[in-house]
Amino acid sequence: MTKIVSIVGARPQFVKLAPIHRELTSLDCEHIIVHTGQHYDANMSQNLFEDFGIPDPDVNLQVGSGGHGEQTGRMLTAIEKALLSIKPDKVLVYGDTNSTIAGALAAAKLHFFVAHLEAGLRSHNRHMPEEINRCATDHVSDLCLAPTQNALSILRSEGLASRSVLVGDVMADVCISTMRSVTANPPTLPKGVPSEFAIATIHRAENTDAPGRLDLIMNGLAQLPVPVVLPGHPRLVNKLARSGKKIEDYGIIEIPPLTYSDLIYAVTRSSYVVTDSGGLQKESFLLNKVCTTVRPQTEWPETFAGGMNCLVEPSEIPRYATREAAVPAEAHPFGRGDAASHVAAELMR
Length: 349
Ligand code: UD1
Known about the structure:
The protein contains 14 helices and 13 strands.
C-alpha cells in the first residue's frame, strides 16, 4: 500500500487537503496528515477540519507563530524527525506558506519524493514571503502539480517541464461542491450581518504590517456604500491592536474567521468582495461576484476575465469596488471540479 504524507499547517491548506484526503483514502493508499501547527486557533484550524470531515492530524508538530526563520526552522527540525519515523513513499506539500517550504525542503533533503500542489504560481514580487516559498518549493519538488494552464506555462519557462503536469485547481473542487451544499442547506449568517453587505478580508503581510497602508485600506472599506463585514484574521486584528485600533473603530462589522462553508455562503449573499486573499479572488470568480483585490499583483490572472477581478491601491477601493462586470460566458480556467482525482492519480502513478 502506497504511503503518502500530506504536510499542512495554515488555513488555506486545510481547504485543499479536504478533497485530496477523500480521493486518496478511496484508493489503495495510506494517507498520513502532518500538521505543522503554524495555525492553531480553533477557527483557523480545528473548525475547518470539522467542517470538512477531515480526521484529526496523525501528527501535530505544534510549532506555532514566530519570525520566518524561527518558524520555518522549527518546522524543518520537527518535519525531518516525523518523516524519518513515518518513511513515506511520497510527500505532498500545498500552496505557498512557511509550512510548504519547510515540508518540501525537509523531504527533499531526506530524498523522499516531493509533490507540490498549486505549483507554478508567481506574483513576480520577491518581497512577498509566499513568492520565495513557492519558487523554492517548485524547484526542489519532484512533481509540480499545476492548477492552471498559465501556471504550467510558467513551470515550463523555468525549465521544469519534465516534472510538471496540469491537474486543475482543487480549491475549485471544494468551492463548487460547497456552493451546491450551501444552496441546498443554507447556513445562518453570523450575528450582526445585515441583509445587504459587502464582504472583505485583509491579512497579507504587505497590507497589515505597514500601519499607514493598513489605515488607508480600512478607511477605503469604510467609504463603501453598503455595510462591510470583515472576518478578522489574527494577523489583521493583532496589527491593528498595535496602533491601538479595532476593526469596529472604522465602522466595519467584525465577525470571527468563518468556516469554509459559512464563508462561501456569505460570499453568495454579499453584494461584492474586497480582499487580498488568493483563494477568495478565485472563489468570487467561481461564484460570479465582482472582486476587488488590494494588491499590486495577483497569482491568478484568470480572474480578470470580464473584469470580474481588478487590482487596486488602497485609496482606489471606493472607486472600483462597486463597479459592474460581465460574468465570463465560457470560463473554466480552474478546471471542472475534478482536480483532486487527477492529483491522486498522479501520486499513485
Ligand atoms: C499564513 C501564510 C499566508 C496565508 C495565510 C492564511 C506564510 C508566510 N503566510 O499567513 O500565505 O495566506 O497563512 O491565513 O506562511 N496567529 C494567531 N493564531 C493562529 C495563527 C496565527 O493568532 O492560529 C497570529 C500570530 O500573531 C502570528 C500571526 O497571526 O504571528 C501571523 O501568522 P502566520 O502563521 O505567521 O502567518 P499568516 O499571516 O497567517
